[in-house]
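Allow me, if you will, to draw on your knowledge of protein folds for a short while. A protein sequence and the structure tokens that stand for its backbone fold form the material at issue. I would ask you to consider whether the tokens describe a fold that such a sequence might reasonably adopt. Thank you for your consideration; the sequence and its tokens are set out here:
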Amino acid sequence: MNFESSVTEIKGIGQKKAELLKKLDIETVSDLINYYPRSYQDRRFITPIANLVPGNTYLVRVYVINIVNNKFGYGKKKTLKITADDGSGRMEIVFFNAGFMANAFKAGEEYLFYGRASSGYGNRLQMTHPEFSLAASDALRGIIPVYPLTDGISQNEMRKWQRSASKYAENVKEFLPPEIIARNNLCSYSYALSNIHFPQDEQKFKEARYRLVFDEMLCLQTGLFAIKNGGAGKNKGIAFDKKIKVDDYINSLPYPLTRAQQNAVREIMTDMESENAMSRLVQGDVGSGKTVVAEIAMYKAVKCGFQAVLMAPTEILARQHFENIKKRFAHFGINTGFLSGSVTKAQRTETLKMIKSGEFDVIIGTHAIIQPDVHFKKLGLVITDEQHRFGVNHRTLLGQKGKNPDQMVMTATPIPRTLAVILYGDLDISVIDELPPGRQAITTKAIGKDKRIDAYRFVKGQIDKGRQAYVVAPLIEDSDAINVRSAESIYSELLRLFRGYTVALLHGNMKQKEKDDIMERFAAGKIDILVSTVVIEVGINVQNASVMVIENSERFGLAQLHQLRGRVGRGNYKSYCILINDSETEVAAQRAEIMVSTADGFVIAEKDLEIRGPGEFFGTRQHGVPDLKIANLVKHIDMLETVKEEALAVITEDPLLESAKYAPLRERIIKTFKSNLDLKM
């Protein structure tokens, strides 16, 4: 057995378990050992029963004094109750509906139990369904990994398989050159793999984690540099005609461009008129006018004899773009088409025909545009809106529809520039940090849960004036683990509070067609209150929506709150955002004050970085870079500059990593990006 062997080579993993592991993207021994714990439980120290505090989790070493099987309820199911003693006190170990487990214990024997202490009948200390083992085996002790799992796989199974896989870590090949390892004081790759799963102490864990975080960030940064400097960034592209100007279109707009928009247009025109293929990120705050900048780029492409395509993450957003752009472009003889997964077969056939023949100059749609049967006559410009909802592979597939077309990415997630360079290392960056005049200011108010009913009275007043409201919750359904209000429970509550009004529920578990239908009804004014999760973070422009209530606002990152708030204030009506905060901590108060005091998304992003650390909006999957298994681009920001310097040194020395020295690193980078990117290497 080697690292590339199937996981079925590991003892205890048959075909059924292998299918379950496949859901976690684990198919080989290498995949398994590179599947890292999400957290750890420190079980090195035994706590006497006398020191247990209900609500906390402990490891106890006790003698079993008595074992009782009690029958209860209909069908006479058995509850196993064990009286345990360690000399400092007594407690009860309880297993419900588990009478069959009685044979696993023997009075007088010593055992280890690990679980949450609670207060039972008569204030007697209890543990319910704890993990256990014979004290002599010591199997529960140590720093124990906790893995993200799927149904059908237990923590104990995963730990057992990881112990088996770890035996092969000693033979794993090093892929970093010795000088990089020495220069950065890194442990060996094999040492890191062994100690990330079952570290003997904190120091070994820190050394292992540092090495693996460094590896991921180096592969990410080197790969992105390779694309930009040695691959796609140097591809010869389309040199759009400099004589074709965009002034006619700009002058037709109902409002002048802001200074920031003008700068972005200037940078885009320079890229488009260059012989090299454009790869540019246009980053702007909510409502900063990125779409207008995209329209100007599409106008340029079409007037130069090419087709342009705009891909949006949802059908409703794509259709909104289509309706607005189609009208404006029609005045200039530009024919705009629409393609999504919901169009009829006949419509699709006709649309595909017109795309292929070139009758459609501009095509707007969803990911349906990247399907294999979509063929363009002469594609010159590719634009993806809200890139973090797709992934780099979508951008790449769309780019492959033409011969090195210019590519532009738009995102409304403000990102501190230090991180933007990492997240979008293969793109040049334009920043639109200025809002057009006339945007309605949004009044933001932070309140405690005791003023919650007042918030909904205010919502009622807005609806009675003809406006509409969003109510956002952090979870879809109630959770025993987290004490927050869910979208489903709020929806049920508002149905009672707002009798005679139309209340709808929207969340990510719904089918796309159902979500789009609800959003269309809301946009049409047929829904008064839309209760939702963060699925509306990237949504449509509902100008009549004037108020947003965000429940348990302390559960969201600042940047995410800012994105949500940007759903209101899009029309001519005074708009409001009410943050209901269930936390009384100083940090929660500080975060609420930031949201109340500023509407600048870039300021908020910087503050989010300072206060919150790993904000959700920095999740690597959202931003189109390869999934990071252990590194966090915010948490490990101090390492970014070091890694960037190393990556630059590598690419400078060997742009395509063709030498024997960098061949193992090259192989690792390709594996990191998987099918997401053509590295041109």
Summary: The longest strand covers residues 57-72.
